[in-house]
Amino acid sequence: MNKFVLVLILFWALNAFAQESVQAAKSTTQEPLTQEYAENYVFADPKQRKIFLNLTAELRCPKCQNQNIADSDAPIAHDMRRKVYQLMQEGKNKAEVIDWMKQRYGNFVYYKPPVNAVTIWLWLLPVLFAIVMLMFFLRRRKPEDDHNIDAKIAQADKMLKDD
Amino acid sequence: MNKLATYLIPLALFLGLCVFLFKGLYSDPTIRESEVLAKPFPVFELPDLQNERLIHTNEIFTGKVTLINVWGVWCITCAIELPYLTALSGQGLKVVGLYYDQDIDPDFGIKTLSRVRQEVAQMTAKYGNPFAFNIFDIYRDTSLDLGVTGAPETFLVDQNGVIRVHHLGDINPRIWRLKFSPVLSEIAPALEANIAAMNQSITGQPVIAEQGEGGE
User: Fold this and answer.
1) Shortest alpha-carbon distance between residue B186 and chain A (Å)
2) Of A33, A39, A51, B43, which residue is least crowded by CB atoms under 10 Å?
3) What is the CA radius of gyration of chain A?
C-alpha cells in the first residue's frame, strides 16, 4: 500500500510541475505576442479586445502544427486574425466566430476538442484504467494474505510438534 | 491457465501499444478531412485578374466541370504544376485560377495591380497557361471560405457548382489517377477518358521536365 501512496504523490507532483511550466511558458511566450498582434486592430471596447486575444489564442493555425493563430506568422494565420476581427466588428460573439472557423477548417481549428462518441474515450479510458487497476490490486492482496497466514500457522504448528 | 493469462494479458497490451505507436511514426499529421467536400462552392463575386470591370460569380460553374486552382506567382509548387495543368486544359478541362497575392496585404498594401498582372503574364509565358481566366481573390475571403491553408490547392467543381474534390499540394499524373480520376469518370466520362489516355502517354517519363518545354 505504501508504494501505491508513493506513486500517487509522484503523479500529483508531476502534474503540479507540468501546470507550473505551462503557465511559465504562457507568460513568457504567448502573452507578449498576442498583445503585439492585437496592436494592429482597434477596439472601441476593452472587453472586445480581450475576447479577440482570447479567440486568437484558442484558434489553431491549420497550416502550422501546434501554433495558435496569435502565435503563428503564416499567411493563413494573418488572414484568420483579420477575419476574426472582421467578424467581431460585424457583431458576432465568441461562439459564432468559432463556429464560422469550424465550418471551414473543421474541429482541428479549435483547441478544445468536442466531446462525442469518438473523443469521450480520451476522458473515460484513464478513469476506467484506474478503476480496473485498483480492483486488480485489491483482489490480489487478500487471498495471498490469508494463504500466508495459514501457511505460517501450519509452519508454527510443525515447529511446535518438532520441539 | 490463470497464471499464463497474467503473463499474456500485459504482453498483449504491450504489443497493442507498440502497434499503435509504430503506426503513429508514419502517420501524416497534416492530413485533415476537407469541410467543403460535397458542398456548393461558396458564393463569391470577384473581379477578373486581368480586367477589374469583369466580375465573376458562381455562374461560371453552370453546365461545365471546372477545376479551380488556388495559386500565386510567389508559390514555387504552383509553378511546378503549371505545365501539367496546361496539359489537362489541352484535353478540354476547364481550368480556372483563383489567384491570390501575398504582397497585397490589406494591412500593408505594397504591390500594384499592374505589377501583379505583369508577373502573372511572365510566369504563364514561362511554364504554361492552363487558365481560361483568373479570378482575383483580393482579400482572400473566398480562399478562407474554401478552407484553403496555402497554395497550391485544387478543387474539382461539378456542373452544378458542387465541390467534389479538394486537393492540397501539387497536381501530377499520380495524384490525378488517385484522387481526381474516379470522380471525373463519374461526372464527365468522355473527358476523363481523354485525360487518362494522356496520362498513359506521359507516365514513366519525368513529367515535370518533359512538360516544361511545351508551355504556351
Assistant:
1) 26
2) A39
3) 28
